[in-house]
Amino acid sequence: MPPPLDCETLALLRSFLTPLLEAAGSWGDLVERLAAKGYGVAFRDGHLVVINAETDMPVCTGTMLGVPLRTLAARLGRPCVKSHRDGHSGNLA
Q1: Stretch (H or E) spanning 28
Q2: Do 62 and 48 form a contact (C-beta atoms < 8 A)?
Q3: Least C-beta-crowded within 10 Å: which of 31, 33, 44, 88?
Q4: Its domain of life (predicted)?
Q5: pTM across the whole model
Q6: Burial (Cβ within 10 Å: 0-12, 13-18, ≥19) of residue 85
């Protein structure tokens, strides 16, 4: 899971990433929008996690951005997630 963020960093991430999550019309569209900005999406312990595309490190969760997984799933449909062997993480299939 991503580390806790200070309020300034979180505010900047919200202003930059939240519009991408809110404008996506599908899970594939969300992946493309995030990739264009150098980010990706993963799932960890039941949470949507935005990751740095270069390092594959978690940056924040959708909940931290004000767009939790349940909100996206209600709008975009349930994501098709390919689970990793650890059973706690996965990626969009």
Answers
A1: helix 27-36
A2: yes
A3: 88
A4: Bacteria
A5: 0.92
A6: exposed
What are all long-range contacts of 34-37, with beta carbons under 8 Å and residues at least 24 apart? none
CA–centroid distance for 45 within its chain: 13
81-83 vs 58-61, strand pairing mode? unpaired
| Secondary structure, 3-state, 60-83 | EECCCCCCCHHHHHHHHCCCCEEE
- Domain extent listing, the chain: 7-74
> Which one, of 65, 24, 29, lies nearest residue 48 by Cα?
65
Both tokens of 58, joined, read 């978690």
What are the pLDDT tens digits along the chain (93 aa)? Answer: 898 999 999 999 999 999 999 999 999 999 999 999 999 999 999 999 999 999 999 999 999 999 999 999 999 999 999 999 999 999 998
